[in-house]
Design goal:
The complex is a heterodimer of chains A (279) and B (405). By secondary structure, chain A is an all-alpha fold. Chain A is 72% helix and 1% strand. Chain A has one domain. Chain A contains 13 helices and one strand. Chain B contains eight helices and 19 strands. Chain B starts with a strand and ends in a 28-residue tail after the last strand. By secondary structure, chain B is an alpha/beta fold. Chain B has two domains: 250 residues, P-loop containing nucleotide triphosphate hydrolases (Rossmann fold); 130 residues, abc- transporter (atp binding component) like domain (Coagulation Factor XIII, Chain A, domain 1, Distorted Sandwich), CATH 2.70.50.60. Classes of the chains: A mainly alpha (279), B alpha/beta (405). Chains A and B meet through strand 1, helix 2, helix 5, helix 7 and helix 13 of A and helix 1, helix 2, strand 4 and helix 3 of B.
Chain lengths: 279, 405
């Protein structure tokens, strides 16, 4: 027999990952649908992906650079430093909000068809990734605008994209599962995102932040997985940024990414069996 | 051919109904609130939880190539069974073994996106139903042909008429080629013409291509036409499995009968009712035994409400509701009443009869609901008569013409 399914309560399916692989076409097509609809429905779709990081960057540059007069020793223009942190952060923030609403928004699919549910939040993270790529073009425009030549290590950037993806997917998945059960999570997420931007090295660099944190507590700062991701991003763009790989707390961030990812997958798989009944 | 493709043993699905929450999902606020309450010690929970078994102790097996119709009244667990089989929801008990690729069609057009064009939706819906892109591409022309919407292929489906939408959606589903196809009440949509086309397609799938089909419908005649085996569920339990005709016979007659007896309760109650099992032609006789505990004589109306087996109202007849002069005077003790109802216009088929004993616009004394059924046959007539199964309704009206030349 080529194909055999056994359905039993409480059994985690042995072929779970195989199933995801088998449904990869559905994953492509759902991602494609999300992207297509996103940029079809709103004529401002692309513009929005450009404007949001750009305006945030301008405000942050103004607030942190001019008003708070946080001095950097860097020779790199401050807007580029801010933007290098803004990019992964906005990707993370978008992923969280998109993913957490994705299952509830696809209620009909969940209650009428079987497929590995993880596909849905994953495809919504992909949509945010497209936004991220569009925003990335702004960075290139900024390079020209300031006549700034990024270091050669910018070639490592795709690696950090994957890092940002993993860092977003974990919490995104976790929130997705929780949002199905506790619907008021959708009110909590915007707050988390707003709060997070200030505890992450977005408007300021992590060196600036660490200056005011006692050295024995600096590891706490890096419990935030995005702290590490943003450091890595900035390092690949800003010539005189410190190498995060030589900074021990950076690895705490990396460990957090992994931990959150594993926890999220575990939690999601546990709850996924009841989605159709809960949603 | 006798190889079993689906084997269900001891299957049960339990839902917890919480009477406190208004919706199915909780909010974090509620959850925290409950926890705080229980910490403080006021463990008095005014949540009443009730277990509800949508399915219980179901055992059956289905052989390769069978077309199985699942019948049962609303809430019998038919849809839950299909959801468990198609892995949408997890059972609470038991085991299901499926030896083949399964595709389920619990709704027409699942995942269709309003903003996308017909062409895009074909690929999207195909993927959702489990077809690969290559498969959809190979069958694309066939699908378009079947749906008959080729001129609108590049129009967003939000501009489609509902008929076009359904046709396109079914066309995609009809070209699924799984070993097992699970279909829920999806034929209730679309016009009669298209329904016929769909039934034909499904028939082709099960009979000529030898696939296994599980089919839920309230349309008994469609089930009888399409399926060779039947499963009858009632309140989450399996009543019987067998050949489709036996199962349908049992389903149609079970629970309902042409007689009904119950214990007297209240001032006025029907203790026994009896109707003709088969009505050939015009008149049906209803015999009622009504007990009255009221000392004086009591005028009441008796209403007859006719429904199809799928609970579609068909007609209404009354003694006394429209004309109080015709009310029945019940005396203290037992009354035997024989009423005659003209059902001449009813189509051939099965009907439910519900009886109310009332004081019009004041109160209901007693009612008999979902217990009595009968069948209309028209054996003596040479002319053809309307049949319920044609889906043209249940009433045959008289039409005359005056030809003007």
């Amino acid at each position: 027999m080529s194909f055999r399914i056994v359905i039993e309560p409480g059994k985690t399916r042995k072929n779970y990952w195989k199933d995801i692989w088998r449904y990869r076409e559905l994953f492509y097509i759902l991602s494609w649908r999300d992207i297509k609809v996103r940029y079809k429905q709103t004529t401002l779709g692309v513009l929005w992906a450009v404007l949001r990081p750009l305006l945030t960057m301008i405000v942050f540059t103004f607030v942190f650079g001019k008003v708070a007069r946080l001095e950097t020793t860097s020779v790199v223009p401050y807007p580029i430093i801010v933007f290098a942190g803004m990019l992964p952060w906005l990707f993370f923030a978008n992923s969280l909000s998109e993913a957490s609403n994705s299952l509830v928004g696809n209620e009909r699919l969940i209650t009428k068809v079987y497929f590995p549910r993880m596909i849905i939040p994953a495809s919504s993270v992909i949509t945010s990734f497209i936004d991220f790529l569009i925003s990335f073009c702004i960075l290139i425009v900024l390079f020209f605008f300031y006549g700034y030549a990024p270091p050669a290590r910018i070639c490592l950037m795709p690696l950090f994209w994957i890092l940002a993806f993993l860092a977003s997917f974990g919490p995104g998945l976790y929130l997705t599962a929780l949002n199905v059960k506790y619907r008021d999570f959708r009110y909590i997420i915007p707050f988390m995102v707003q709060f997070g931007i200030f505890i992450s090295p977005v408007g300021i660099t992590s060196e600036q932040a660490l200056k005011v944190i006692p050295s024995h507590l600096q590891w706490v700062y890096y419990l935030n997985p995005m702290a590490g991701v943003i450091d890595a991003f900035r390092w690949s763009i800003v010539t005189d940024a410190p190498n995060p790989f030589l900074n021990f707390p950076f690895y705490i961030s990396m460990a957090m990414i992994l931990l959150l990812l594993v926890l999220a997958i575990f939690q999601f798989r546990k709850m996924e069996r009841h989605f159709a009944d809960l949603i | 051919m006798s190889e079993s493709i689906i084997k269900v043993s001891g299957l049960g699905k339990k839902y917890i109904i919480s009477h406190e929450a208004s919706g199915k999902y909780t909010t974090l606020r509620d959850a925290i609130g409950r926890n705080i309450k229980s910490w403080i010690g006021s463990s008095q929970r005014n949540v009443s939880r009730e277990e509800f078994w949508a399915l219980r102790d179901i055992y059956f097996s289905i052989n390769r190539g069978d077309a199985v119709g699942i019948v049962g009244r609303n809430g019998a667990g038919k849809s839950t069974l299909l959801k468990v089989l198609s892995r949408i929801t997890e059972p609470s008990h038991g085991k299901v073994e499926i030896n083949g690729r399964i595709a389920s069609l619990l709704e027409v057009g699942t995942g269709f996106h309003q903003e996308l064009t017909g062409r895009e939706n074909i690929f999207l819906n195909g993927a959702i139903l489990g077809m690969s892109r290559a498969e959809v591409r190979a069958k694309f022309d066939e699908i378009v042909d079947f749906s008959g919407v080729e001129t609108f292929l590049d129009t967003p489906v939000k501009r489609y008429s509902s008929g076009m939408y359904v046709r396109l959606a079914f066309a995609v589903a009809a070209h699924l080629e799984p070993e097992i196809l699970v279909v829920d009440e999806v034929l209730a949509v679309g016009d009669a013409e298209f329904q016929k086309k769909c039934l034909g397609k499904m028939d082709d799938v099960s009979r000529n291509q030898g696939r296994t089909v599980l089919f839920v419908s309230h349309n008994i005649s469609a089930i009888q036409q399409l399926c060779n085996k039947g499963i009858y569920l009632e309140r989450g339990k399996l009543v019987m499995q067998g050949g489709i005709d036996e199962v349908v016979d049992r389903y149609v007659s079970e629970g309902t009968n042409n007689t009904f007896t119950k214990e007297p309760k209240g001032d006025i109650s029907v203790t026994h009712a009896e109707i003709d099992k088969r009505v050939n032609g015009d008149l049906m006789t209803v015999t009622l035994y009504i007990r009255s505990n009221i000392q004086s004589s009591m005028p009441v109306s008796i209403d007859f409400r006719f429904y199809t087996l799928t609970q579609v109202p068909v007609g209404f007849a009354s003694i006394g509701t429209f004309d109080y002069e015709k009310q029945v005077n019940l005396v203290h003790g037992d009354n035997k009443i024989i009423a005659t109802v003209d059902v001449n216009t009813f189509a051939i088929g099965n009907y439910l009869l519900n009886i109310d004993v009332t004081r019009p616009n004041v109160e209901y004394y007693d009612r008999i609901e979902d217990h009595l059924s009968f069948e209309i046959v028209k054996e003596t007539e040479e002319n053809r008569s309307l049949q319920q199964s044609w889906n043209y309704g249940s009433v045959q009206l008289n039409a005359t013409i005056k030809q003007v030349n």
